[in-house]
Amino acid sequence: MAQHHDVIVVGAGFTGLSAAAMLAERGFDVAVLEAQMRVGGRAEAHTLADGARVDKGGQFVCDDMTNVMALIRRYGKTLVQTPVEGAFVVQPEIDAPDRAYAESRSLRLRMRALDPRDPAIGGMSVADWLAAQPVSTDAAKAFRSTVEGLWCRPIGELPLWYLVSNDRRITNRQSEIEYFVGETIHSLAEDMAAGLDGRVLTGRPVTRISARAERVQVQAGDLLFSARHVLVAVPPVAASRIGFEPDLPAALRRALSVWKSGAVIKALVRYPRPFWRQRGLSGMVSWLDPSGLFACDVSREGLGAALVVFVGGPLAIAAQAMPPAALEEMILAKLATALGETARTATAIAVRDWTGDAWSGGGYSDTVCDLRAQDAEDVLRAGAGRIRFACSELSPSYPGYIEGAIVAGRVAAEEIMAAVGQDAL
Ligand SMILES: Cc1cc2nc3c(=O)[nH]c(=O)nc-3n(C[C@H](O)[C@H](O)[C@H](O)COP(=O)(O)OP(=O)(O)OC[C@H]3O[C@@H](n4cnc5c(N)ncnc54)[C@H](O)[C@@H]3O)c2cc1C
């Protein structure tokens, strides 16, 4: 026998939780089916040996991200300002790092000014475009490292129009690593799930969604659910693994097939003290080579001195072939070159490799990797009748961020409420 609800939300990441919270507040009978035994999706926390809780996935926020900031306040979380005082290090050392980064930022602005719908850039990758730009080699390397670090795919695979459209929606003026949450941002997802009062069912991977005349049936393990509307709040690659009956329309199937998951490894490296500060360094390091590598200071009360290191894009893909000890050694060696030999004296290193993650794909976000698939996001947002798709990737603002997930979830909830209003007419 199927359990009946008004709306079923598949996935308890920030998108699914935000959509469900809004629907529940407006009196809808909503159930959230989550594959994993925990909520939060790409926001995940771990307890270290001494009891400190740390975010191993999504972590940073800034004042411009108004929706997540409002939730952080509403749930009484502690905001910690990311320590940034001191010099920023660029690796390997180059002659004029400030000039290279300023040039790279202007390049990014020039790219954003392109029209993503312009047919002239339709079949062009970011690498094609970059090769044609009149910039210094160091600025081109800085640009490439930033893009591969943030979008977590090699620039040769990223469509130029996709990056333009995506980057235009990331509008923060404050640094995106302005703050993090002392209790972990994952605890915010847990609080939101708790506020849903038993409506979130974990350990329920959805394998099949079947559209019937007035209802949709959702198979999760040995349980069958039915609802008037279903919101698939999972990243596109994860959505493409769900079986749909009848098959989704061809355009929608194609729109789901053009995404690839990013690749990212996040490492927390702890030290007896923040030794970099004694040398006037902020602990923030950006590597031009290897591309996509970045570190910053996340020291705080209760955790002590610590750096977080992001290994993104091609380097994370290459790191798949490394034994864990070799990866840790590589991270410590890079930090030692950038911040001094004391970096080798880490007291602990905790690595979370997201690459190929079973439920979330692998990176901050999935990205479209088909140079001609300009309509993929619109087709997915339109959904198929009673089945809708939402995730941070499809957000009108801050795609690829927690803020984007919250916005995407709320937009989808509004659309479902409007559709229910139509049903009632
Ligand atoms: C290492 C890392 C660092 C990051 N850092 C930041 C940061 O500092 N700041 C920031 O704003 N963002 C950051 N992000 C990105 C941010 O975490 C994501 O954009 C956001 O959490 C995505 O939310 P979502 O709900 O759209 O998707 P997800 O969080 O992926 O949620 C989808 C949920 O659906 C579930 N699911 C998948 N398939 C099924 C199925 N078939 N049935 C049932 N459930 C299913 C998954 O288990 C998951 O819980 C980071 C991400 C990573 C991986």
Automatic annotation (TrEMBL):
Cofactor(s) the record lists: FAD
UniProt xrefs under Pfam families: Amino_oxidase
InterPro entries linked to this entry: Amino_oxidase (IPR002937), FAD/NAD-bd_sf (IPR036188), Flavin_amine_oxidase (IPR001613), Flavin_MAO (IPR050703)
Lineage top rank: taxon: Bacteria
Span of domain Amine oxidase: 14-417
Keywords attached to this entry: Oxidoreductase
Annotated family: Belongs to the flavin monoamine oxidase family.
Protein name: FAD-dependent oxidoreductase
Organism encoding this protein: Mycoplana rhizolycopersici
Phylogenetic classification of the source organism: Bacteria, Pseudomonadati, Pseudomonadota, Alphaproteobacteria, Hyphomicrobiales
